[in-house]
Amino acid sequence: MRHIRIFDTTLRDGEQSPGVALSVPQKLEIAHGLARLGVDIIEAGFPITSQGDFECVNRIAREVKGPVICALARTNKADIERAAEAIAPAEKRRIHVFTSASRVHLEYMLRKTPEEVLELSEAMVRYAKEFTDDVEFSAQDVMRADFDFVKRLYEVAIAAGATTINLPDTTGYGVPQEYGALIRRIRDEVVRGRDVHISVHCHDDLGMATANALAGVENGATQIECTINGIGERAGNTALEEVVMALYTRRDHYRAETRIHTREIYRMSRMVERYTGMVVQPNKAIVGDNAFAHESGIHQDGVIKNKETYEIMNAEIVGRQAAVLVLGKHSGRNAFRKALAELGFNLPEEQLQNLFLRFKEIADTKGALETDELRALVESESVNTPQLFSIEQLQFFSGYGMLPTATVRLKTPKGEVTTTAIGDGPVDAVYKAISEAIELQPELELYRVESVTGSTEALGEVTVKLRLGEVLTTGHGVSPDIIEASARAYLDAVNRFVAGQASKHPPSLDEVQAKGAAS
Ligand SMILES: CC(=O)SCCNC(=O)CCNC(=O)[C@H](O)C(C)(C)COP(=O)(O)OP(=O)(O)OC[C@H]1O[C@@H](n2cnc3c(N)ncnc32)[C@H](O)[C@@H]1OP(=O)(O)O
Ligand SMILES: CC(C)C(=O)C(=O)O
């Protein structure tokens, strides 16, 4: 298999992301991480940019062992000297000299003729060679440049000693077939079998950076320039994790391999996310939160039966936890049953079906449930208490300057009962309305409300203790709405009270209500 070099430019092009400025310790830690990841080349910075950037590249060159340490330089002597000085302590060092290729860059930005750019490029590659044998040459914006000029530029760069020629699609203008064809022509018409690496550097302005880089590999490139999480100027660069995993997962197709220790990928992604403050989108390939999660019932059912139904790679291979089944409104019974079994609940089928309906009802309004929320739901609903009283409807009003008022419609053994009450707050109003509907006046000994996972979006879990005469009963209720959870907890306690009496000497409801009313 062909070896593809991974040239990581997180610390140079990646740091050019608007709003990102990494400190020296952060860059050093990222560089050490990149060495552990197994990248071949680290582009550590652009030393002429600032004293801070110089020092950073210099410290990385001193301290980070393994990869080639590379510094960027424009086609001028001052840049090259600064780059050479910064990387001098490295065991393996590279200077990356760049110019521009497109007419618009030459005319408006460099304000030079093509002949001047050719001359300067040749002279500056030669100059960089005085400091290191390993010189890379790039001409920005090759996709929008005249091919004959691009060809001449890279020919002079190779003649001057460039050992790697990089073809940057600086503006992300290329499409895979076109970019691949450019790389092929460079291979056939410029490199012509010489010992020079062809490198790809693609930007993601049209969302094609990864596809373009891979098209380059298919057509002769042996180096990919990329960044962790695809960060970089504007829409970013080719994402390291994407090209590496594409080459690995589709090695049957590309017949090429990298030296990346893939199990380090996720850790690096999180480190770069944390230090740059650039949050990885949930649906980002390989490293996004959802990349190995399944929510819909049909997918979950398939994955439970055989992971290969919906997974082309294992999460573990990129250093993540095994794929997770997210329990939300799209989930099915098989995934629900499995999740409960993993939590240690093996419920009878009928109970599981009822619980599933309640779960769907909650997930429909709240979204996916976390493990602790699922556990709370099961614990509050799975105990086989006969539902003598249950909520049909619940409505309440409260607010500053208003009388808290609640109306409940309950299913009771006497049929549907609707009552309204005023209270000191919405929960008090609901409890008074329920008490009237069930014709019992329990004393509330304890009322506790908690957010199951500690966030405001979490399920609310309410625990109550009610005293009915001599008997103390506990009830639990969960719901995204804490007033509803409170009503459920109250009725749960009442139903348990009734069930507890029934297990000894079944009283009639009239007896229970008479007892409750008397207490
Ligand atoms: C596609 C890329 O990612 S390229 C790398 C981009 N990275 C950066 O720009 C890093 C941050 N940059 C900086 O700190 C500054 O721009 C510096 C230190 C590099 C230069 O700063 P200044 O000297 O103030 O120049 P300024 O940024 O205003 O303009 C850039 C100059 O570089 C010239 N230039 C641009 N590319 C090249 C090149 N490849 N070779 C030679 N000169 C170049 C421009 O023509 C312009 O020259 P001018 O001042 O004669 O008009
Ligand atoms: C310096 C070059 C390689 C670059 O970053 C670009 O053209 O995008």
From TrEMBL:
Enzyme Commission designation: 2.3.3.13
Residues that coordinate or bind Mn(2+): 13, 201, 203, 237
Keyword Cell membrane found: no
Cofactor: Mn(2+)
Stretches assigned to the Pyruvate carboxyltransferase domain: 4-266
Keyword field: Amino-acid biosynthesis, Branched-chain amino acid biosynthesis, Cytoplasm, Leucine biosynthesis, Manganese, Metal-binding, Transferase
Catalytic activities: 3-methyl-2-oxobutanoate + acetyl-CoA + H2O = (2S)-2-isopropylmalate + CoA + H(+)
Protein name (record): 2-isopropylmalate synthase
Organism per entry: Allomeiothermus silvanus (strain ATCC 700542 / DSM 9946 / NBRC 106475 / NCIMB 13440 / VI-R2)
